[in-house]
Design brief:
Shape: globular
Oligomer: single chain
Number of helices: 5
CATH class: Alpha Beta
Strand content: 15-25%
Structural class: alpha/beta
CATH superfamily: HUPs
CATH architecture: 3-Layer(aba) Sandwich
Largest sheet: 3 strands, parallel
CATH topology: Rossmann fold
Strand order of the largest sheet: 2-3-4
Order of helices and strands: EEHEHEEHHH
Distance between the termini: 31 Å
C-alpha cells in the first residue's frame, strides 16, 4: 500500500476529537478500488476514525465497467482482510454534494501527494485490457484477481 500524507483543507465545521466514533464519509465510483483510494481512506483509519464508504449506484458502461455490487465486494474484501473499521453502503447516483453553514462536522478536501496523485482508474482499466501487468502495483493484491475477472467479464457484455 502507498503510504502518503495528503494535504487537507477544511471547508466547514470544526475538527473534532471523534470520541463518539463518528464515521468519516467517502463517496465515489471506485472503478476499480485502487491504492489512491486506499491511501485517502487510510488518512482517517490511521487516525482511529472509522470510514463509511458510499458507492454510487451506477449502471455499468465503458467508463464504469464494474457493477455496484462488484465494487462493494472488492472494497469490503480489502478492508475486512486488513481488520479496518469500515462500512460500505450503496447510495443512489447523485447530482451534487451540498452543505449549509454550521453543519456540525468537518468538510475536508484532500489533495493527494505527487507520488500517488497520478493514479487513475481509467489507466488501470486500460492496462488490464492491453494485457500490461503494470496495473498490479496500483491495486492491492487481495483484490487483483477480482478486478481482472470482473473487468474481463464485463468487457464481453459491453
Amino acid at each position: 500500500m502507498v503510504v502518503a500524507k495528503w494535504d487537507v483543507k477544511n471547508h466547514g465545521g470544526n475538527p473534532t476529537t471523534n470520541d463518539s466514533k463518528k464515521y468519516a464519509i467517502f463517496v465515489g465510483r471506485f472503478q476499480p478500488y485502487h491504492q489512491g483510494h486506499i491511501s485517502l481512506i487510510m488518512q482517517k483509519i490511521n487516525a482511529g476514525i472509522p470510514a463509511l464508504i458510499m458507492v454510487r449506484d451506477i449502471a455499468p458502461d465503458a467508463k464504469n465497467p464494474f457493477s455496484t455490487e462488484q465494487t462493494v465486494e472488492m472494497i469490503e474484501k480489502y478492508h475486512t482482510a486488513k481488520g479496518h473499521d469500515v462500512q460500505v453502503i450503496i447510495i443512489p447516483d447523485m447530482e451534487s454534494v451540498n452543505f449549509g453553514r454550521g453543519v456540525g462536522y468537518e468538510i475536508n478536501e484532500f489533495t493527494p501527494p505527487e507520488n500517488i496523485g497520478w493514479i487513475s482508474a481509467t489507466g488501470i482499466r486500460n492496462s488490464i485490457k492491453e494485457g500490461n501487468n503494470d496495473w498490479r502495483t496500483l491495486v492491492d493484491e487481495s483484490i487483483q484477481a477480482d478486478v481482472e475477472k470482473y473487468l474481463l467479464e464485463t468487457e464481453i457484455e459491453l
